[in-house]
Design brief:
The structure holds two protein chains of two kinds.
Chain A lengths: L24 H6 L3 E8 L2 E6 L4 E8 L3 E3 H14 L3 E4 L4 E6 L5 H10 L15 E2 L13 H11 L1 H5 L9 E4 L13 E6 L8 H7 L2 H7 L5 E6 L2 E6 L9 H5 L12 E6 L14 E8 L6 H17 L6 H8 L1 H8 L15
Parallel strand pairs in A: 7-8, 8-9
Antiparallel strand pairs in A: 1-2, 2-3, 3-6, 5-6, 9-12, 10-11, 12-13
Chain B lengths: L10 E2 L16 E5 L6 E3 H14 L3 E4 L6 E6 L1 H14 L14 E2 L13 H11 L1 H5 L9 E4 L14 E7 L4 E2 L1 H10 L2 H4 L9 E4 L2 E4 L9 H5 L4 E2 L4 E7 L13 E7 L1 H6 L3 H17 L6 H8 L1 H8 L35
Helix pairs in contact in B: 1-2, 10-11
Classes of the chains: A alpha+beta, B alpha+beta.
């Protein structure tokens, strides 16, 4: 990067700010020298360095989508308690890093006064990672933030405590493209379309480039077709997997469908290598309706899963390990979820 | 279209279907800003980002997008250039989008974790700077993701979603502090919750003494996770390189497979990661040559066969790469004998 006069020259390709400039001094002093950690209580842990220095972490559930005002509020807290430093986690939590133990409780009080929970460590329900949803994505089949808010309100106690058999990682993707890469979670909720995009035949010619629309389809379901004398496309319903990729390049192929869009639930995935291999989540509920603002059907299904898991799993068993031990037939029996032909994988790329 | 001059990605256009009814969100674009490695920030830089977001966009952020970028939501194309320039003057560049290298990301690593076997922040920062062009100007078949996890707990979920996943491992014996083991024994049943859960049953706890047969340890982390004060990963630290993980589109989700069982990342660091960069370049060259539009590298490898892929990038097959050896007998032998009179360089 050329050393340019900032403010007058257009800067490109500089990469991210260098992380060393953003590490709290206690981390700089102990970088790579951490000896062990202990969980002091839900949402609070201490890391102890070879030097004896102690770093306290307070983990706060954040909403992922945040306002500039929220950013300023947490910045004020970071200034007051953490020398102006703070970090986020891979699950969209916010973490305050403290070098003084006596600051933990006052900080927690202020965080809670802002309306944010402290927790998400150890045998808890971690923060639900999620995608954009109706808020900001064109192919979404559900309202990511809305469902997640409803779920976290309902299962708040599992976030702020450590009462579950093991950690439960939950994630929400608003369509099967799974931007949130949710498919390896203990509980994954995925927005589902059930019908192909609608072809607005009279608008295709004006709004879309037909070759790129055809090329956008991963399963060759979009084909050229002249409709009422105008160049347009048709969609092979048998092939379509409802990914919405054609709609991304052609606004005349809307896929959102209030009647038919909903969510599916997959469970028993994990990414950690501890004890058992990483594995993807498997289908347990093929479809539930979008029922804003509180999504009661989704909440009830998740409650059924969490309660069966809490009741049946041994201490330390992740959802995947619990089901491996008892078997899927038993899981469907104790939860009462209906096992249908949709649960049997029949997907083949042709 | 939405974007800034000289970049092919980093800004994702969002247009309303009903611009007349909702003129305020007629255009509501997203800018992906390359996050700081480890997601560390200062209040000062966050406030400046908030000011930029208020002035040029909708006052909304994602901290963070799923790949790892900060996202600034809700600006018009006419604001894009000024927003971008203000961000770069603050030190933030755009992240990847489209058929490009997506913004690499990592776990918190040695900054605040005793288990990291290598410097995840350093390597991620280094690769990100090395491959700015591949991030900002999409020329790939499809997306390519790189994620660096410091240990097999894989807190960045690299193994389930990144085309190239780097996961810390070690070679030497797990370090045991018997005094601390005794302390844990007062809190829970070590045999039941640690020893009996070891996947290879290579541990023993008898008469208050914990022993580990490290030759059979598969580095799963369970015992270390259970007793962080008593057990530590062994020395001779390095990493494992896995390839080919991805989410559903197009041919089912898949976990990757192990490409390099032990990569001496800490030595490679001293050489500016020359080995890794060369490996990545070979993978990209192969993908560029043989991959089709929207085919992730893992799907390409499955289509052409792992053997062919390994040959192309110059790696030998290893048992670590497969779940188990083949069960079908349809082998195309490349070596076979022919009668002497036909012998003319037919050794295959």
């Amino acid at each position: 990067m050329p050393d340019v006069d900032k403010g007058t020259v257009r800067i490109t390709d500089i990469g991210p700010p260098h992380y060393e400039d953003f590490l709290p001094p206690i981390i700089k002093r102990n970088y790579g020298k951490w000896l062990y950690h202990e969980i002091l209580k839900p949402g609070v842990m201490v890391h102890v360095s070879e030097s004896g220095e102690k770093l306290y972490t307070v983990r706060v559930g954040s909403t992922r989508i945040v306002s500039s005002d929220f950013v300023r509020e947490i910045s004020d807290l970071a200034d007051k308690y953490c020398g102006g430093y703070l970090k986020f986690t891979t699950r969209n939590n916010l973490e305050f890093l403290l070098d003084k133990e006596e600051n933990i409780e006052p900080l927690i009080k202020e965080v809670q006064a802002l309306g944010f929970p402290v927790g998400g460590i150890d045998h808890s329900l971690g923060n639900i990672v999620h995608t954009q949803g109706w808020l900001h994505c064109h192919t979404s089949a559900s309202y990511a933030s809305g469902v997640v808010k409803a779920l976290m309100d309902e299962f708040y106690d599992y976030f702020v405590s450590d009462k579950l058999p093991a950690k439960v990682r939950m994630a929400f993707a608003c369509c099967l493209n799974m931007c949130g890469s949710v498919g390896a979670s203990d509980i994954a909720i995925v927005g589902m379309h059930r019908r192909p995009p609608r072809v607005m035949a009279d608008r295709v010619k004006d709004l879309c480039e037909i070759p790129s629309t055809i090329a956008a389809c991963p399963v060759d379901a979009v084909r050229p077709k002249t409709i009422d004398g105008k160049p347009s496309v048709e969609i092979d319903e048998d092939r379509c997997v409802y990914c919405g990729n054609c709609y991304t390049v052609c606004p005349a192929l809307p896929i959102a469908d209030p009647l038919n869009d909903g969510v599916a639930i997959f469970i028993g995935g994990k990414v950690s290598n501890a004890r058992t291999k990483p594995t993807f989540s498997k289908l347990v509920v093929p479809w539930l309706p979008n029922n804003p603002p509180r999504w009661p059907e989704v909440i009830e299904a998740v409650r059924t899963i969490l309660e069966a898991y809490k009741e049946g799993a041994r201490k330390g068993e992740r959802v995947a390990e619990w089901i491996d031990r008892i078997g899927w037939p038993k899981f469907f029996k104790i939860t009462g979820f209906e096992f249908t032909k949709y649960h049997i994988d029949d997907f083949r790329i042709r | 279209m939405a974007g800034v001059r000289g970049y092919g990605g980093g800004i994702v256009g969002r247009f309303s279907d009903e611009p007349d009814e909702y003129p305020g969100v007629k255009e509501y674009h997203t800018a992906r800003l390359n996050q700081i490695e480890g997601f560390f920030y200062t209040s000062d830089v966050l406030r400046k980002l908030a000011d930029i977001c208020d002035e040029h966009a909708g006052g909304l952020f994602n901290f963070h997008g799923s790949t790892g970028d900060i996202q600034i939501l809700g600006f018009k194309q006419e604001e894009a250039e000024e927003l971008f320039q203000k961000c770069t003057h603050l030190g933030f560049d755009l992240g990847g989008s489209g058929s490009a290298l997506r913004t690499p990301s990592c776990c918190v690593g040695p900054a605040r974790c005793e288990w990291a076997t290598y410097d995840t922040l350093h390597i991620t920062d280094n690769l990100t700077r090395e491959f700015q062009n591949e991030m900002h100007r999409p020329t790939f078949n499809y997306k390519f993701k790189i994620k660096c996890a410091g240990c097999p707990n894989d807190c960045i979920a690299s193994g389930a979603r990144s085309d190239l996943s780097i996961v810390g491992v070690w070679k030497a014996n797990i370090r045991i502090d018997q005094k601390e083991v005794a302390e844990y024994a007062k809190k829970f049943d070590i045999k039941k919750y640690v020893v009996d859960k070891c996947p290879t049953h290579c541990m023993d706890y008898t008469d208050g003494k914990l022993t580990i047969d490290d030759s059979n340890c598969v580095k799963c982390m369970h015992c270390i996770n259970s007793m962080p004060k008593a057990l530590r990963p062994g020395l001779e630290k390095g990493a494992q390189i896995r390839i080919g993980a991805k989410v559903p589109m197009v041919q089912d989700p898949r976990l990757g497979f192990i490409l390099i069982p032990f990569y001496d990342v800490n030595k490679d660091k001293e050489e500016d990661y020359a080995f890794l960069k060369d490996l990545i370049q070979k993978i990209w060259d192969f993908w560029d040559e043989y991959g089709t539009n929207r085919e992730r590298v893992g799907e390409l490898i499955q289509r052409v066969g792992v053997g062919n892929f390994l040959e192309a990038i110059g790696l030998d097959p290893l048992p670590e790469m497969v779940e188990y050896p083949r069960a079908n007998p349809f082998i195309k032998f490349e070596e076979y004998l022919v009668p002497d009179d036909e012998e003319e360089g037919k050794e295959g």
